[in-house]
Structures
1.
Amino acid sequence: MSDASPTKWHLAHTTWFFETFVLKAFVPEYRSLNDTYSFLFNSYYVQAGARYVRDRRGLISRPSVQEVFDYRNYVNSHMMEFLSTSVSNEAEYVIEVGINHEQQHQELLVTDIKHVLFANPLFPKYDTSPHPKSALTPEFRWVEFEEGITSIGHASIGHTASGFSYDNESPVHRQFLERFALANRPVSNREMLDFIKDGGYENPLHWLSEGWALCQNEHWRYPFYWIEEDGEWFEFTLYGKIPLDLNAPATHVSYYEADAYARWAGYRLPTEFEWEHASRRAEQETGHYSDRFQFYPIFEDSELPTDLIHMFGSSWEWTNSHYSPYPGYRAVEGALGEYNGKFMANQFVLRGGSCATPSDHIRSTYRNFFPASARWQFSSFRLANRLSQ
């Protein structure tokens, strides 16, 4: 799949990031281990030079895995030497971006491995331990929020006393929110199956035009990784093919599917501003992150009494907000300005993190973004509803 990259490439690319933006920028005497790597392992940074085409990364059979590890060790040793010196504030900022960038690729590594294993007709397991199962799906209810002006965004870019943030989370600005209600939990597999059985994937009235065209052209009939065999439902996971857990959150759905379900149910998806405002009520929720090495979202007994469930961790949540700059936004200078700003078109915002996200990487202001058709990420959704005044 053109969106997925080989495991080896992720390791090489995150290494390239530190080499290109730290060592080559701040260490004049640094020499690359192999000059061809700058072409092979650049992703989309135009200012950093030429790049190998993304959808053919899987054909890069050389360098070998061992050679990539040698490259990694070479850059690591030079980074450790550089960090033993007096590092400028500018270099510190780039290094911290690099660390957070690597955390993003740790997540992509998991989702891309899952897709690679799914493409194998034997459905091999990444994890051979027993797969986790959900407790009973928490009872559905609405959590209400009053109208008013709310502050959105992170106070500053980079590392501050309140933690790291990307430039797309700033500047802080105000948003007026009408009264609204947010579902206390994401939509479950059982509820998604009700949508399917009611002809949800066959009725164009529920779908945006572009989503309906994809649904027809790509023969969408259920969420990605679902499998129907002789009237029985299964799901491919990193634990292999398992019976569909009806109590688990419905995951690996596109924005189009989430929006279609919401229309079918008579509601809508929340805006990213509603989501961020509401998430402050769940700020202390520990969530379910990659640190647990349990790459399957479930509802757990300990979560059932909480006000808002899975706002953080488990699976990303689609919002109905286009990925656009905040008022007063300015991309950072130089090649790192390409990190976020140039993607602010034809994308929708997701919030909250997933079971593949490192726990210290996520925050209430974090803005993930993908095209509306993306399905291979751990993406789910919860419903929202406007309340009468």
Note: The two ends are 47 Å apart (CA to CA).
2.
Amino acid sequence: MLVAASFLIAAAVGVLSFGHSTKREVASGVVLGALGAATILAALGFCPFVSDAESTEGVLGVALAATFAWMFGAGTKAVFSQKAADLGSGDIRTGAFKLGWWWPWLLLSPTLVILVFFLYLPAYRTFTLSTKLTRLGTPRVGERCLSNFSELLVTNPAVVIMLPLTAVAFIWGVGMWHRRSEPGSWGHNLTRTIRPFGILIFLYSLYFIFENENGGYRLIYLNTVVISSSIVIVSMVAGLALAYLTFQNVRGITVYRTLLIWPYAISPPVAGILFFMMFNATGGIFAALANDFGFDFPNYATNSTLARLTIILASVWKLLGYNLLFFLAGLQTVPRDQIEAAALDGANAIQRFRSIVMPALGPIAFFLLITNLTFSFFDVYGTIDFLTKGAPAGATSVAIYELIRVGVDNGDLGRGAAQSVVLFLAVIGLTAWQFKQSEGRISYGSA
């Protein structure tokens, strides 16, 4: 029953991703969706649907089938759309390689070899390892199918299915309402206000599908969202503010800029050591100064809120120079004549910044959003390891720290690989969502 349901859902998803305007598109979507589902389910040996599999594993099997159906449909549509655009552009394209069709592949072979052996093959091995029961240094390997994933979730399949789908349906409905409402109407204004909060609604729904008992993954998820989002938002806002201040033409500004950029040269573990030396309650610099004035310096290692704030502060300090450098470069491209014309028209500093400076910095801000997000998900491990080691009571243990603790420190390779796959999918999903949201909003040049 679940196998048939998986293929039906995959076929429907394939149609939605490939297109449903014509009968040919519908048929192609059905074939591609079924092919995507068959590929992943065959690779798993249809283990999520065997009689002794957990109910949550069946849900994950259906979700995997739908995901690969979407990838097959959307990927094929993108290829055909690009070819159609090239053919319809009117440009006459002549062959550049006269030595044969294999010549471009020969030139690309070094890059392809590196990608295959250092990216695609390790990713495939990580996914296969996530379906095993194996420990570091132990030759025995057992099959677990998707149990390493299902144990991260609550045992109620209805909750796992309905909460994310309800959030997606709400976001999709608001988007459709926005597109169909007339500009300037109350519905259009309301949906324009709600739409940016769609990702928050989806993230909030995911919070309840993770296991919360016996040191479950729900706290790890919460820590990851709170710490990562805070690092990205604060570092970018502070970087832009400092870049705007240091862009002024004053004496010695080059020295100030250099001093502000220097922290980026420090590695995350060193940043963790420096902040440990400053904020340690027993021998730290701030604790000694507080004692001199008769105050008790709080111990961040015993307070979950202070521990998270310390991690965020150390990571923001580490990223600040990176963001400052790019924002300074972007400010140099802002057309001065437009700012002067706006000032002559009576626009104040805030209006000039919002209407002229921010649109010009759009491409750089989008690039920094992606890179800062990657740092907050992965490179923060070194800072946490030296500052808190996940304490107190796991309050600062994020996804990257937890998977290394489980997979490397505890030697449970299967569970660690499963958590790494979850983290990988989360980063890919957020990045794809950001690219989707940026369409039509970021200009990379004048028309």
Note: The beta strands are 132-133, 142-143.
3.
Amino acid sequence: MKRAKAVSVLLIAALAVSSLAACGSKSSSSKKEADKFYIGGIGPTTGGAAIYGTAVKNAARIAVDEINEDGGINGHEIEYKFEDDQSDAEKSVNAYNTLKDWGMQILLGTVTSTPCVAIADKTAQDNMFQVTPSASTTDILANGNVFQICFTDPNQGTASAQYIAENKLATKVGIIYNSSDVYSSGISDKFIEEAKAEKLDVVATEAFTEDSKTDFSTQLKKIQDSGADMVFLPIYYTEASIVLKQADTMGFAPKFFGCDGLDGILSVDNFNTSLAEGVMLLTPFAADADDEATQNFVKKYKDEFGEIPNQFAADAYDGIYAIKAAIEKAEATPDMSVSDLGDTLKESMPEVTIQGLTGGDEGLNWESTGEVNKQPKAVIIKDGAYTAM
């Protein structure tokens, strides 16, 4: 009986210690949440668009580490976590829910346009502040809580037509685009519209869908027969690599011009990069630019990840610093609710300008709609590397 009583006393004591430890743990967790901003990221790190998502994940990490090492945002560090969505809308929603459970207050993502449309609906419901590094469709801007770092699809289409015309790169243009993808079709529509104004002759417009993106011989033959001296490719790098292979097989050698979706073509597995020689693309970032900020970023990225960063990496880096600038402008604090942060950052974001890697001489600033203002650049692939034009 005495033994039982002794055991009972020990159990009670153990429970008391356990209870105190649990309370201490909870207090520590609450303090951690109150002292740090929780920024989540979503994008493809596996699958056909993995080059984009991996670049965003890596570059955002570089920016977060820099900010934390420099004392954080108004003295508050950033916690950063990235989830893979394989560029799939359903998986992106799952990733969003995972990050919400983790404690996400602000989202940097998603990376590609179609998943971003699905996630923009979710962030609107939660009134969460969202910055996307590279989703370019205007469909994500409807609710006022999403801000873009990259050009919108219409801007890319318009700027591409203007650049081609102003630099007299072609007179007759054929287009190959994905009619089932909002990114591709959006750019194509605006390119055709602006081409008329610029007196560029669009002689062939050839579509494909997600179900037919491995054989472009029919589209290429029609464009070849049309007499086009340039093929405009508002598509992603995987499909573009196939287009270049098949054009070479046909003996068809026009100029090729694309947008940010082509950034990554030099990293496609088993692709002969010599086929991309002379390919031009509109982009806000050139890794060989000689300004100090670009060179420092390129060096850090290469040292840490063993490769040259692409445009998507630069956009993500700028995205983190844009979030920092908006928080500082609003004097926001981590103890604010997700919705309160959303309200205050939506107001402050159009009031900030950052120099960034992708803003050119005038930097980046934002409309209240979420659309970014910055200068476009063009690069050409030369000797297996992207070179500023």
Note: The longest strand covers residues 36-43.
4.
Amino acid sequence: MKKMLNKLFALSLIAMISMVAVTGCAGDAGTDAGSTDDQLQFMIGGIGPLTGGAAVYGVGVQNGAQIAVDEINAAGGINGIPISFNMQDDELDPEKAVNAYNSLKDWGMNILMGTVTSGACVEVANMTKMDNMFQLTPSGSSTSCIENNDNVFQVCFTDPNQGIGAAQYIGESGLTTAEGNQVDKVAVIYDSSDVYSSGIYEKFAEEAANQSSFEIVATGAFTADNKTDFSVQLQIAKDAGANLVFLPIYYTEASLILTQAAGMEYAPVFFGCDGLDGILNVENFDTSLAEGVVLLTPFAADAQDEKTQAFVTEYQARHNETPNQFAADAYDAIYIIKAAAEHSGVTADMSASEICEALKTAMTEISLDGLTGVGMTWEATGEVDKEPKAMTIVSGVYQLIQ
């Protein structure tokens, strides 16, 4: 009896092991199938500052891109393939942006929508060039982002175009001060340690020489190591009689400049580019000090076209705030990728390098009507062709200057 029981026990054990083995094989097959399904997605990565002093930019990009991804997936994806979107925080640090890029590659990224800022974009572009990864930056505006990088394209204007456009606008628009005086003397305060700021300033200064209605009477530079006290630069501008101060800088420093200018009873017209978009969201900043600030930007949230209003409505519903230009840039970026992918017929089972080669060609052949431009086209150099919009801040909101 004992031998019989042992035999039955052994047979039962063998049967159980066999069942586990079969189940294990079936489970592995299911996992493999799932992995195949997971791979059949366009894996779009994003990189930008989600925390820290420039988080307004990165969070806007993340939110705007996600709305576009959700819309595209709801409509059937790209060439019938869904998008998976993964945004990583670089804290406005180029080294951390490179780390984020490597993490996204480990995740399976085959297209990069990033980075958000120019300094980080330049560093990451070196990596994407080596990997032949297609890169579309929503807001990296330095020419260094695309220089000698045929795989990198821009949604925003280049810094030279912003500088030239700003000088031309000031010279031709008939801007006046709050007292009604014609703007004719301009001071510039810029960050000489930042490629975005210095790039815009250089072209602004060159184009200003061609404008007969104003002259640059003062220039003050600062660096990343000294960007909290602007009293010297402001005093020089005030003493020179500048009735407009051009600020090709980011919104955090701009908020300090406006606050310090008010403290010394200096009230010129303040004029900036897309980096000023976000100044109304600076914590503890008195937004009344931004009244009358003018900036050139590709997006106006109060524009009345159907596409803009639908985006603004959705963004406000999700995040309880008005989207900035960076959110609109990212929204357009995802749709630009979609247009290029559909034009070229790429599929998600292609390698990242194969996708890149196809998209590089497609970018020079497509045209897109987006939130930030109508009839946007791209040069093989990566530069976008579109027109800027002039905005002014009135009662704490951005208004399009008609």
Note: DSSP finds eleven helices and 14 strands in the chain.
